[in-house]
Amino acid sequence: MRGGLRRVRLRAGKAEKIRLQRHPWLFSGAFAPDALADSGDTVCVCDEHGHPIAYGHWDAQSPIRCRVFAWERIKLTPNEAFWQNRFAQALALRRSLPDLTVTNAYRLLNSEGDGVPGVIVDIYDQVAVVQLRTPGSERLRPSLLRFLTQQLQLQGIYLRRETPSESEWIWGTPLPEVFIKEYGLEFKVSIEKGQKTGFFLDQRHNRQLLRSYASGKRVANFFAYTGGFTLYAGAGGAVELLSVEIMSEPASLIHENLERNQLAHVPHTLWIEDAFEALQKLEKGYWDIIILDPPAFTHHQETVPQALRGYKEINRRALRLLPAGGLLFTFSCSAHVTPQIFRDMLLEAAMEADRPVQILHFMHAPPDHPIDLFHPQGEYLKGFVLLVR
Q1: Where are the domains of the chain?
Q2: Looking at beta carbons, which pairs linking 72-81 to residues 24 or more positions away fall under 8 Å?
Q3: What does the pLDDT average to over 352-378?
Q4: In terms of CATH, what superfamily is 80-180?
Q5: C-beta separation of 377 from 370 below 8 A
Q6: CA 307/CA 296 separation, integer angstroms
Q7: pTM of structure
Q8: Secondary structure element (H or E) that encloses residue 347, with its range
């Protein structure tokens, strides 16, 4: 074993393709029958002759049997110093981004995008929200806590699990609610009850883009959550706002956030309602800009066709409602719906709506959400600004 690590062999003929493609997910079918380790173990992946090609975290229960975090060329054994250096590289990248001068909330670690599979860390001012999505990432918890507490000025660290009852504060002082700033706007964020890690940090640039188009417009924001796009539209000079959100608890923050940012004077209506049904109630041609930012309609490859039917339906309805010159900001955050698949779906929606459409912008996550070029699944957020002619 290299550096005391368990070696796991690939099947004959697999190594060359894996070396070339460098995809960080190695599936169970790629490994020889004697490739065994405990879930969470750090393993040295070898070709059929026993020559090391990669390091990764093993998951005996998942079809993604190994998540690679480094290739053999690093010539280092993954140890505490290795991980502290990997975390430090991610922090240095964030501190170099001019984009982050506009906010005190950002993503510090973006899983495979930063070479730390399964680890998500979002910073909300003096609170870090951590997600550990794999057995291997769970093993990194002590190293990660050491780094966060030594390198950042934090008051609390919250570990978010899939179920709220299993989530907990794991360091410092619990701060259930915090206030973050973004492009001059302030948002109240519920750390313990919010979706994802509390706020949709990946839409920062896209909210600002909407702001630049909103002056004098009537803007309808669907799947509004706590009103991120709604506030940016108001700050950009929108003359009327509509927020549609099916969950009453996050939606209750929209009015508060509007008041906090001196935007309560902008006429605003909140509907606690299903977006599909709400789209049927809108007056055709009344709203100049419509935003569709739904949750992921699919988390599995086999349900992509069903998800695309849902995406097409809401986009078809929105395109029919917009006047000539109207804008549609439309998104998908499903990793299984690629940018090309999403674009093809929009083409079908435009044809069924019988509307001529131009693409003005292709949207994605900001640079504090880096993507490994060899891991296209990391490009989960994609969106378009469409102009209806």
Answers
A1: 2-74, 80-180, 200-388
A2: 77/2, 77/3, 77/4, 77/5, 78/3, 78/5, 78/42, 79/3, 80/143
A3: 97
A4: RNA methyltransferase domain (HRMD) like (3.30.750.80)
A5: no
A6: 8
A7: 0.94
A8: helix 339-353
